[in-house]
Amino acid sequence: MSFTYYSDNRLVFGTDAQQHLQELLAPYHPTSILLVYSGDYVFDLGIHDTVIAAADALGAKVLENGSVVPNPRIELVRELVDTARANNVDFILAAGGASSFDTAKAVGVGVPYAGDVWDLFDGTHEPTETLPVGVISTIPGSGSEVSDCAVLQQGKDKRALETRLIIPKFAIVNPEYSRTTPYRYQAAAVADLAVGFLEPYFTSGAHIEAADRLLEGGFIAALTAGRRFAADPQDLATRTELHWLSATMFNHCWLATGSVNDWTTHRLEHELGGEYDVIHGEGIAAILPSIIRYVGRRAPERYAQLAARVFGADPYDYTPQQAANLLADRLEEHFRALGLAVSLHELDIPRSGIEHVADVLTGNGTKTVGNYSPLNRDDVIAILELAY
């Protein structure tokens, strides 16, 4: 339970947050800025104009690329690394959500690295330096705007890089910016947001009781804001709540400091997402209830505690396994209320692919997945069958 917590990240929050871009960039004395995004929203929201104005004021040129896609690809990162090197880029700015941010983070560590940037994701090498990265958030949910994580895909292989080196130097969060986000993507991000409070909650080892209470409160707030979002996606107050929860939930996992986090759900979803190009939050919604129902048969304690404290599952009325099942049911209801699929067949994932996913995740049965109740190959197959 010994640890050091530190995050070199400046968060500027509010409906005028973008007005601070020039002062946020100034300490880095940029001369060549690479702007990364994934659609016309940067023009519709005025973000592009804001970036150009700030760069002009600082005497910096701007290069840009708007080709980022969900489940971002290594091929674009390689292209951008070459572009950045050829143009002496010294600052990377990303606008959007996790896909844009993760792309920017990968380019940041890729430029100073002598080899192929994928080496840093497959574990061949550890990054030792990065170009500074700043982000402008247009969709809440992933927490990538303040996190030490980037997820990339090469072919069907999806990998995560985790290092404090890639925490963005600053994040601009204007809740007005998420008003143009398509409902499907925001609903998926809202699901991911709620689950972000659960991965650290599901722990079998020593942990800080105060962290349980903080995570429970964040989870309740995420469920409440999610329901309000589903009822009125344009409500600014609700989107403000979601943006703040996003930044709070994954600020280098500070709510989970001192414990071993689970991450079973994310690891299973990353493999499904890589194999079938599923939107991350949609994959989360389709498998988490089944994970809880399955694992709850042998390790229901943490699920039961959460069900008691959040959904009133009185331990005198419910066995631990019954309480775990109640938690799964309530989560499934929440995901359905957001309009998300809650099974694999709804996502058009073929049943025939389940064993392949399990083989890849477990190295053909040689390793396990997750920390709360580690899953072997047969467990993974059983969960995915249950989720089908």
Automatic annotation (TrEMBL):
Annotated keywords: Oxidoreductase
Gene3D superfamilies named in the record: 3.40.50.1970, Dehydroquinate synthase-like - alpha domain
Residue ranges of every copy of the Alcohol dehydrogenase iron-type/glycerol dehydrogenase GldA domain listed in the record: 9-175
GO cellular component: cytosol
Domain Fe-containing alcohol dehydrogenase-like C-terminal residues, every copy: 209-388
CDD domains (UniProt xref): BDH (cd08187)
Leader peptide range in chain numbering: none
Pfam family, one: Fe-ADH
Transmembrane segments: none
An MF annotation (GO) of this entry: metal ion binding
InterPro entries: ADH_Fe/GldA (IPR001670), ADH_Fe_C (IPR056798), ADH_Fe_CS (IPR018211), BDH-like (IPR044731)
Tagged with keyword Oxidoreductase: yes
Protein name per its UniProtKB record: Iron-containing alcohol dehydrogenase
Native organism: Bifidobacterium imperatoris
